[in-house]
Amino acid sequence: MSLDVSPALLDQAERGEVDEADFVDCVRTSLPYAWEMVSSLVAQLKVDGGDFADNQVPPPDEQARGQLLRALASDAIRGSLERHFGVRLAFQNCHRVAAFPLAGTSDDRYTKFTSPRAQLLNQSPMLRDC
User: Fold this and answer.
1) Residue 41 needs a FRET pair 20 to 30 A away by CA distance; which of 2, 31, 83, 87 works?
2) Residue 55 located in a structural domain
3) Measured in Å, how far apart are the chain's first and last C-alpha atoms?
């Protein structure tokens, strides 16, 4: 799964620094499932006002799963999403994504979510090949 980079954005990259808003828009249009997942978590976080919002529903198909993996495995994409939405993202497996408010990333909830213990407890045989 790759980004659909417009000729104008590629030209911008070849000339030097890329405008992050243009990059974020490229991510939004290239990875719509991942974008919607992060957007919905951020909206849930704002509405509920909790410590974090997370998704536990597997993607509907392999294309969606690939988008999510691409977005969260790439430091550039993930970092841009975090800056754009003003959150810290955490990722445990092929679908469990969480959004934390920036002020809460050093708190106990974030530390627990990203711990080896939480990673192990979030495993199951059905997720082995995700």
Assistant:
1) 2
2) yes
3) 15
pLDDT at 49: 82
Separation in Å, CA 84 to CA 11, 97, 119: 23, 17, 26
Q: What is the pLDDT of residues 6-51, one digit of tens each?
A: 999 999 999 998 999 999 999 999 999 999 999 999 999 999 888 8
Q: How far apart are CA 29 and CA 97, in angstroms?
A: 20
Pull the structure tokens for residue 71.
């977005």
19, part of any domain: no
Task: Output the pTM of the full model.
Answer: 0.82
Any idea which residue has 């919607």 for tokens? 36
Cα atoms found within 13 Å of the Cα of residue 12, Cβ hemisphere only: 13
Instruction: Tell me if 76 is assigned to some domain.
Output: yes
81: Cβ contacts below 8 Å, ≥ 6 apart: 24, 27, 38, 71, 89
Structural domain for 100, as ranges = 33-127
